[in-house]
Amino acid sequence: FKEEIIQYRRGLNDTRNEQHLHSTFLASTRMKLMAFFVALSSVVMAGFIYQAMKQEYNLRNMKTRMAENTADFQRNEVAIDELKTNYQIMMKALMAVNSHTVELNEKKKDHETMAQQVTDHSVAKENAERDIQQLKKLILDRDTAICAFADITKVEAR
């Protein structure tokens, strides 16, 4: 009977050893699982932190680009306003030049008509002088013809 008890105790001890081994195995498995989950959560947390930092960096870059674009836009607006004012000044100058050109064209036409009138008057003057010369010659010829028939001894004929 003692042997049975000893064996029983040994068996109990074996069972206790088995339970101890089993509980030790479970404890080590639990520890491994806990370590795994801690590592996994650390990796996930690191991923979240990386994504957050990347997003912050992208937002900062976008903010910087937006500020630069706004500055460029304002510079372009100022340049456009300057171009508009220059355009208006040029248009005023062009209108003045156009009106001056119209005046000069009118003066040119007046000078051309005056030149034509001078030419016409000079031609008319030459014709009138020619007619006068012809009339003088005709009068002289008539006077000569009358004198030929007239008596020179009389005072009236002279």
From TrEMBL:
Transmembrane residue ranges: 33-53
Domain of life of the source: Eukaryota
Keyword annotations for this protein, in alphabetical order, are: Membrane, Transmembrane, Transmembrane helix
Protein name, per record: Uncharacterized protein
Protein species of origin: Cyclopterus lumpus (Lumpsucker)
Ranked from the top, the taxonomy reads: Eukaryota, Metazoa, Chordata, Craniata, Vertebrata
